[in-house]
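Quarterly update from the structural biology core.
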Amino acid sequence: MKILIATKNEGKIAELRSLLSDERHEFIGLDALSDIPDVEETGNTFAENAKLKAAAYSTHFGLHTLADDSGLEVQALNGRPGVFSARYGGVKKNYDAKIRLLLEQLDEAENKDRRARFVSHIAFASPNGDVLFEAEGVCEGSIAFKPKGTNGFGYDPVFIPAGFDQTFGELSDQVKQKTSHRARAIAKIMRYLRDFA
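Predicted structure, tokenized:
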């Protein structure tokens, strides 16, 4: 069975492809298709956005579809950037600018708690848009005082996962594939897909 990975984020596509290992299914990204619609993320939660994207892309392309919505929640910022992680500070800002903004806001916050967590919610939809399965993964950690490392993407250079003293930007792909929020959600999805006919 062909399954669409519904994202345009190249870093996310690469990470998901490395996590999705199943000989029974073929996984393709939006990068392999044309006439890609823009699906506006209007949900208030990661779950709502994941389901919205899975349903929209699956019906548009007529394919079983996996859609992920994920982001960073910072304790001292009352859970921000949260569902706005990719749009934090403006859609056109790159992640270097988003990280600078995040660190500036943490410096200015009265609460000096640097605890944070990455959350990933993944929805799996049938070609007619029915959401058949959902999974969520969480990775607890904290925010570094400055970016370190060039591995990964997004907020990885400032996120230190619990149990480590290096950021995801410094840690190897092998470590991230075992500990990340997305890896934890995908593990649940893969268990479901193994039994899916």
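The mean pLDDT is 91.
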